[in-house]
Design brief:
- By secondary structure, the chain is mainly alpha-helical.
- α2 crosses α3.
- The longest helix has 18 residues.
- Pfam families: TetR_C_14.
- It comes from Actinoplanes couchii.
- This is MftR C-terminal domain-containing protein.
- InterPro entries: MftR_C (IPR041347).
Length: about 80
C-alpha cells in the first residue's frame, strides 16, 4: 500500500510506484530513469494535494503534473 506524506513513508511509496511503473513498462530501475521520473511527477502532485492548498481533485493534479513535464521543465 502506498503511503504518501512527509517522512520515510513517502520515499517508500515513491519507490513502490517506480517499481510498478518499471514492471508495467518493461523498463529497469537500475538502468532507466523513466520509472523514477514518472513516480516523482506523481509524488509531486500527491504532495501538493496533501499540503491542502489546492482544492483540485488529485486525478487532475496528476494529469497536470505530467502535462507540465512532457515538453521539459519550463523556465522558473
Amino acid at each position: 500500500m502506498l503511503a504518501w506524506g512527509a517522512g520515510p513513508g513517502s520515499a517508500n511509496a515513491e519507490a513502490e510506484l517506480a517499481a510498478a511503473v518499471a514492471e508495467r513498462t518493461g523498463t529497469d530501475l537500475t538502468t532507466d530513469m523513466y520509472p523514477r521520473l514518472v513516480a516523482a511527477a506523481a509524488g509531486t502532485a500527491m504532495q501538493h494535494y496533501l499540503d491542502g492548498g489546492d482544492p483540485t481533485p488529485i486525478e487532475q493534479l496528476i494529469t497536470e503534473a505530467f502535462t507540465q513535464i512532457t515538453p521539459g521543465p519550463p523556465p522558473p
